[in-house]
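Memo subject: From amino acid sequence to discrete backbone structure tokens
Keywords: amino acid chain, backbone geometry, structure tokens, three-dimensional fold.
Body of memo: The sequence and its backbone structure tokens, given next.
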Amino acid sequence: MVKLRLKRCGRKQRAIYRIVAIDVRSRREGRDLRKVGFYDPINNQTYSNVPAILYFLEKGAQPTGTVSDIFRKADLFKEKISS
């Protein structure tokens, strides 16, 4: 099973998270299938590769709670509904 979840990057006390499609059995910093965006909680910036995210969602990938909250704030689900 594939999940869309956060992968921690950046330096100490200055975390940046990549949004990745990754196998459920992998650890947090494990090998990802594809990078689909990033999230910077300090500057509150988000970048999303919408076609890649929609591809994985159509294939049955489940976003984690935090990632679905990020998508909801970025209005990504509205684009999915209107497509």
Remarks:
- The domain at 1-78 is CATH 3.30.1320.10 (S16 Ribosomal Protein; Chain: A;).
- The two ends are 25 Å apart (CA to CA).
- The mean pLDDT is 87.
- Helices lie at 50-58, 65-73, 76-82.
